[in-house]
Amino acid sequence: MKKKYLIYSGSAIILITATVLLFSSSKNISNYSDIDTVPAINPDYSGVVIPPNIAPLNFLIEEEGKAFAVKLHAENGRPVKISGKKNKIHIPRKKWSRLLKLNVGNELHCEIFIKDNSGKWLKYSTIKNKISNEELDGYLAYRLIHPGYNLWDKMGLYQRNLQNFDEKPIMSNRTTDNNCMNCHAFRNNDGNTMMFHMRAKHGGTIIVKDGEVKKVDTKTANTMSAGVYPAWHPNGNLITFSVNEIHQYFHAQPEKRIEVMDHAADLILYDIDRNSVSIIEQASKPDAFETFPAWSPDGKYLYYCSALARSPNEYEEIKYNLLRIEFNTEDKSFGRVDTIVSSNETGLSVSFPRVSPDGRYVLFCMSDYGNFSIWHDESDLYIYDLEKEQISKPDAINSPESDSYHTWSSNGKWIVFSSRRINGLFTRPYFAYHYGEGQFSKPFLLPQKDPEFYKTYLKSYNVPELIKTPVSVSTWEFNQVAKEDAEKSSYEE
Amino acid sequence: MSLKKYLDLFSTFVSIAFFTVIFYYFYFIADHIIYQQNEKVLFLFDIEYFKDFLLYPGGLTEYFSNFLAQFFYHKWLGVTIITALTFIASFITRKIYQKLSGNRIPYLHLLPSLLFVALYQGQSMELALGYILAAMAFLAYLSCAKKTNKYIFVVIAFILLYFVSAGFSIIFLVSSFVYELIHIKKQKTLLLLLSYLALGMLIPFISCRWIFVISVKDAYLYLLPLIPAFSVPTANIISIFFLPLLPFIALVKFAPSETNKTKNILKISLPFILLGLLSIFVFTKSLNKDYKLLLQIEKLALEEEWTELLQTSAQNPNGSDIIASYTNLALYKTGNLPWDMFRFIQFHNENGLILKWRTSSDILMAGSNVYFYLGLNNAAYRWAFEDLVVEGATQQVLKRLILTSMINKDYLVAEKYISILEKSLYYKKWAKRYRRMLNNDPAVNSDPLLGEKVKQLAHNNSFITVINNEPNLKLLLQSNPRNKMAFEYLMAQYLLKKDIEGFAGQIENIRNFQYNKLPSSYEEALLVYYIFHETDKKDLGDLSISNNTLKRFNAYSEGYSKYKSNKDMAIKALRPEFGGTYWYYHHFVDRQSSKETNSQKVDR
Q: CA nearest A402: which of A363, A438, A428?
């Protein structure tokens, strides 16, 4: 009898507690005063377009208050309510996903209530975001590395599931004697056709194609270096690399930190099946630096950056043009070279061209000089409309700090790009919706489970690449291949 | 009192004395270990910081070790923690030994503590913590009454221990295996025992194959002391095998006899003597004096105890380039660089003034310090950031990054580092002080330290040179011609390179500074210059070469002419009187000079 009584009373306590908790986490606030101010939230997720498959945009309310409540609602479905004494807003993932899926194409409203010191609730102006009709590719691949100078320690390539907060290593140097790894690249946003380089110990290029993983050494006696900046040809068997002699300089003045520049650079074509390398003669002139290759989606054009070769003392005069060279997919020959964007006309220097999946736009960076735009505060993103032959600067996505490396989503409706807008040093990935005609929405920061995450995180998100499917090769498999000797590439005239 | 009771009492006394010696050793002799732990480890009260330690087996032991290390901020507390850990290790070892055998070898349980003392040099507390965890698990295993309980316990304990302390779990498993092997009675048990080994092979493999991103080596051996200890090279091996060997050692019968007195004397005194000898060996041999000196000098530089630093350096003249660099910095800070620099043996030449870049973490903060004082702010930031990348965020590095970012008015970046330091126990107050100055240029400019550095900033559009610092120093003087340190370092650099022309080319800039008289090393170098450039008299304003220096130069020249055909004779004759002069350095100290030639402190 006593035991039964204990069970009943215990259950009742649990039930009451659960009800109280449930009630407190979905508080209805009926008595409040309106304030005609948009509340400060961090990250700034206001006035943005978001994909229907993004993880909850958790944020901090940066306003004073004793208690906080948030109501997320849209035309369809039940609102999501969060409240508590802390200004950290964690949105329940399942409720968030449901709300987004039910409201594709609609507006998402975020109402923020703050209880002031006198105990009164204040309702701030509603934050309105748009849920797009088009999804974002499911994963983001990037390298996590300190924004450092010469030395490195722990680093790795990671993939983040964009629908939640799961981040998994693709490869980590913890298993490869702390070597360096960089320049991960994918064919057409495909996580299963990819490559990356390893430097120092276990050096070589790891290539994943048709489920096979191999390690090659693309340095030949006829080329100045192993392949550096890559671009997969859409056919999946060719990769264009730049070969560079890269040097790093350190500025003395407080406003600048690092200058990375080429002392020499050419382009090569690498044939995966034949494991052979050939120099692209038309894009490897002795009096020019050619770098940052990018293929058009049909594989008929190779875009790249080229500047007149100059000595390091004249580094501020090194300005890259955006060029394009014809490619015959049948016999793999290159043809005529065209100048798409001339630095003489813009007065600026181009880097990182990327062609949209529909082949109509080229998105690239421009800075005052040089090619390593991440260390240039003035670097901004520009878009070239190949149909209209017009260049424009989408102000919505640019900031006073460096806006740099970028990728198109596979459907061409989204871009991700590197930006140092938060503090000018630590690179973070931002997403923006492409309305078409070279117009973009206000970008939003990659959401994290803890909205304060970026505040103390000391690594940069380097080379963000959108992929449709995750990289299926495990770190173990990569590790096995990484420790093998690299297969030497042959040189073909 | 019975013999046993008497022995127990004596043993207790020896143990107390033993741990008192450990306390004394770390407090008074190896106190650099306490400093090192405090400087090189920064514990943060932050969930993201904690999460990083969950990414690999052994992370939790490291996390707890770092947690304890934060208390090394107080020397007495750090020493107490080390002593307590060594005491706990020996206490659990004693308990295990009691379980294994009634006839214990006295003081054997103190051996692990002694090994930790040897291994503590430059390492942190993970070793002691790992051992304690493995020993506790083994003790619990021995305490399981039922066989079935033992088997269940070994599986659960091993998996848990593996996650918490990685390689130490293998020590636990092997110890349990060895114990069972010794006491095996049935054939059937052998199979069960082999399953112990299988477990030890399997769990780490599963761990590196499917769960964690770690190498195979780390999966099995992480945290185990694989690097030999300084001067006691086998200490690490013994510390790994001690626990698994304990069940064997316990087989040795060691009970004092009530009848045979001679045997008893031997049995009582021998272990005591052995412990004493071993302790003397470990306490004297395991002290890495070079490392201690380096940390001592680094500590004095951080505390800006320049006079004491110079005294310490003078007593140890054969230091590394890092010590030479700190010594020259101390000479500058005490206003003695152009007077006394050659009283210290400068066999690292200009590399002992400003450290030459190399990919070695030990030079990074030392290099950053010199650049910071010089006012080459971007270089000070860069070297500190390189240290952050390699060694992780320490309080010293974060403080430097905060200060250099504030000087550059790079407040958003400074705020990030401040936010991190605010999560520490002992440095948050310091961080909060600088948070108040964020985005407040007047506050930064009026701060005694930051304001001075702001004035020294180089605004020229130039690159910092990596190999040769001459352009960097000239750049600083260009931006701020009254940067006295840059001037004295530039002159010192010329002298150390024996570049008399370069020196003479800059000497007239001495008029920009308030010198009462011409510094002796400049007088000496000018006299050398005038030998070759008689007509090129330098305009030094009110300053001139003193008669005393002229007299001394004549005396030196005479001596040098007399012995110049025999270098050894010349050194012998000239060093006592002229060893601290530029002339002596110019003739007898070169880049290839051996330590032997220059191994003594030079006195005038």
A: A428
Residues of chain B with CATH 1.25.40: 291-456
For residue range A171-187, what is the model confidence (pLDDT) as tens digits? Answer: 999 999 999 999 999 99
For residue A167, what is the enclosing H or E element?
strand A167-172
Out of 1.10.1760, 1.20.1050, 1.10.10, 1.25.40, the CATH code matching B291-456 is 1.25.40
Q: At A125, phi and psi to the nearest 5?
A: -60, 140
Name the residue among A200, A167, A183 with its Cα closest to residue A241: A183
Please identify which residue in the block is written with the tokens 């990037």.
Answer: A142
When scoring B42, B208, B385 by the number of chain A Cβ atoms within 10 A, the one with the most, hence best to mutate, is B385
Whether residue B17 has pLDDT greater than 70: yes
Interface of B with A in 118-177 (CB under 8 A): none
Decide: B119 and B229 in contact? Cβ < 8 Å.
yes
The per-residue pLDDT for range B475-528, each reduced to its tens digit, is 999 999 999 999 999 999 999 999 999 999 999 999 999 999 999 999 999 999
Contacts of B408 in chain A (CB under 8 A): 254-255
Distance CA A325, CA A337 (A): 4
* Count of CB atoms situated within 10 Å of the CB of A70: 24
Q: Which of A74-88, A365-379, B114-128 has the lowest mean pLDDT?
A: B114-128
Query: Is B389 close to A455, i.e. CB distance below 8 A?
Result: no
pLDDT tens string B163-211: 999 999 999 999 999 999 888 777 767 788 888 999 999 999 999 999 9
* Cis preceding linkage at A43, omega within 30: yes
Dihedral angle computed from the Cα positions of residues B510, B516, B520 and B526, in that order, rounded to the nearest 10 degrees: 40
Q: What angle, 0 to 180 degrees and rounded to 10, lies between the N-to-C axes of helices B147-165 and B59-69? A: 60
Of A114-128, A237-251, B353-367, the one with minimum mean pLDDT is B353-367
Report the DSSP beta bridge partners of residue A115.
A67, A121
- Residues in chain A whose beta carbon is closer than 8 A to a beta carbon of chain B? 146, 148-153, 156, 169, 172, 174-177, 249-255, 257, 259, 422-426, 450, 453, 455-458, 475-476, 479
Domain residue limits, chain A: 9-131, 139-490
Contact B341, B331 (CB under 8 A): yes
A456 to B416: CB separation less than 8 angstroms, yes or no: yes
Q: Determine the pLDDT at residue B595.
A: 38
Sign of CA dihedral A59, A64, A66, A68: negative
Single-letter amino acid code for the residue at B370: V
Cβ contacts of B58 on chain A, cutoff 8 Å: none
Separation of alpha carbons A459 and A88, rounded Å = 22
Q: How far apart are the first and last CA of chain A?
A: 93
Closest among A177, A176, A178, A182 to A143, alpha carbons compared: A182
Q: Can you spell out the DSSP letters for A58-95? A: -EEE-S--SEEEEEEE-SSS--EEEEESSSEE---HHH
B56 to chain A, any CB pair closer than 8 A? The answer is yes
3-state secondary structure of B341: helix
Distance CA B332, CA B493 (A): 13
What is A139-490's CATH superfamily?
Answer: TolB, C-terminal domain (2.120.10.30)
Domain formed by A9-131, architecture: Sandwich (2.60)
Residues A181 and A143 sit within 8 Å (Cβ to Cβ): yes
How many angstroms separate the Cα of A298 from the Cα of each of A190, A232, A273?
A: 16, 12, 20
A-proximal residues of B, 419-478, CB under 8 Å: 419-420, 423, 457-464, 466, 472, 475
Q: Are B604 and B580 in contact (CB under 8 A)?
A: yes
**Residues B324 and B352 sit within 8 Å (Cβ to Cβ):** yes
> Angle at which helices B126-143 and B167-182 pack, to 10 degrees?
30
Alpha carbons B497 and B504: distance in angstroms, whole number: 13
